[in-house]
Predict the 3D structure of the following.
Amino acid sequence: MAHRPRSSQRFPFRVTAFLVSLSLCIAGASGPAAATDAPVNAAAATSAGAVAPDAEKLFKAIVKVQVRAIPDARSSASLGTEREGTGIVIGEDNLIVTIGYLIVEADAVTLIDRRGRSLPAQVVGYDHATGLGLLRSVVPLDATPVVLGEPGRLARREAVLVVTHEGPDEVALAHVASRRLFTANWEYLLEQAIFTSPPVLNWSGAALLDKDLRLLGIGSLIVRNATEEGEREPGNMFVPVDALKPILADLVKTGRRAGPARPWLGLAADEAQGRLVVSRVSADGPADSAGIEVGDIILAVGGEPVRTQAEFYRKVWGGGSAGSEVPLRVLQGVEVKDLKLRSIDRVDYFRPKTMH
C-alpha cells in the first residue's frame, strides 16, 4: 500500500530557509492539520528571530544506501536481491545507521552522498531484535553526525520531520499517530514503536527528526493504520533510537548485541480470528525440520495457550536462549501434534553471517 506525500508537503525552495520554516512549523504544530498545511513563509520566519538550522550539514549526513545481496541469499525471496534505502551518519568515524533488512546477506554496499559520489561501505553490525543495522563508509565522509534524540518524550499528535535520501524536495512533515507495541510475523516485537501519519514513500531507513533536527527513529514500514484505535489512518512505523542506544557500543565492537541470542524458529504466524496461523516456513529452519507446515495453527508453547504474536514470542523467548528446545502444540489438519523445535540464532541462518 503506497502513498505519496501530498503536494503541500513538498518544499522546493532554498534549503536553509526551507528548514527554518519546517523547524518552526514543527515547534508550533499541535495536531494533524499542522502537519499538512502549506509551508510557512521562510523570510517571515527568519525575521521573527529564528535561528536557522544548518540545512546543508543535515543533508550531508543523509545518504542513499544501495545493497546487492549475495547469490542464493535466503532473504532474497522476501527482500529481493537489489535493495535501496536511507542511511544516517551518527558517528565521527563514518558510522551510519539504517534499517537492518537492507543489509542482511549483503554482498556489496554502496553509499551515494550529497555530492552524488558513490562510496563503498562495510557492514558493521546487525540486530534482529530491534531490526537496526550499522554501516561504515570506507571513504571518509564530509558529514557531521546527527545527534540521537529522545523519542521517549514524544507526545501523540506531536509534529515531526521525515527525511530520506531523496533530499530536500521530498522532506515531509508528519505527526505522531501513536506510540505502542508492534509485532510482525517474522518473529519480531517492539515495545514502543513510533507510528506517524500521513505516510511517506522511501520509508526504508528514513530519518525521523524532532524540531531540533535530532534523530528520533529509523523508518521500517508503511502501515494501513498508524493509530491505536478509531478511524483508520495510514502511515509509517519507525524504530525508536532508544532501542539502539544500549546496544550501539556492542554492535560497533562485535557486530551484535552482547549476551545470549534470542531463539528463532523460522516460521511466520499471523493472527486470524483469535488464532495464530502459520503463513510461511523458512526452508531448512527449525520449524521446517520439525514438520511445521503452512496452515498449521499454533495452540500452545510449553503447554501454555497462545493466541497473539506477542504471547507467542514472549513465551518462546522466555524459555531460554538460541539453541534451546521449544515445545509447540499445533493443530495440523484435524490432528493436534506436540512438536519439539531446536531453536537457533537467526543470524546463523543467513549466508554469510551479517557481521564483521
Q: What stands out?
A: Helices lie at 15-28, 42-47, 55-60, 76-79, 248-254, 286-290, 309-317, 346-349.
